[in-house]
Design a protein that fits this description.
metal-binding, about 55% helix, Lipoxygenase domain-containing protein
């Protein structure tokens, strides 16, 4: 149970982070990483090896899923990683939900902090061969 305001804030922070930023970090990059089947095979046609050193390239290729299962997997990860046309991002709240002045001020402050974090991420991505775009 939650006993203090600080505990409530911590709990709600975890819920909001999990449902927003963490979900975005995991979800939106699925196609980029999983569309190359060896990165994330949906099935394997051979059992995993039981001893080190027994597997060669031929075994790995024969273990990968067939074309049909691979196509199903590609379609699934593509669909899961798409943004919706009416996607709302963290910090975007319809005005009709929050009209009180203290809440609006908190939203402005929060959006400002999000913009600062976005700037840090953008700067971190400068010159990277593989930039990070998901948050």
């Amino acid at each position: 149970s939650l006993q203090t305001k600080e505990q409530l804030v911590e709990y709600l922070t975890v819920v909001i982070f999990t449902a927003s930023a963490q979900h975005a970090a995991v979800n939106f990059g699925q196609y980029d990483w999983c569309s190359w089947i060896p990165n994330s095979p949906p099935t394997m046609r051979k059992p995993p090896p039981t001893k080190k050193g027994e597997v060669d390239l031929k075994y790995i290729v024969e273990s990968l899923p067939d074309r049909g299962r691979s196509c199903w997997h590609l379609g699934a990860v593509w669909a899961l990683s798409q943004f919706q046309e009416n996607e709302l991002y963290l910090g975007m709240y319809p005005d009709e939900h929050f009209i009180e002045k203290p809440v609006k001020e908190a939203m402005v402050k929060f959006r400002k902090k999000l913009a600062e974090v976005a700037k840090v991420i953008k700067n971190r991505n400068e010159g990277k061969k593989l930039p990070y775009y998901y948050l």
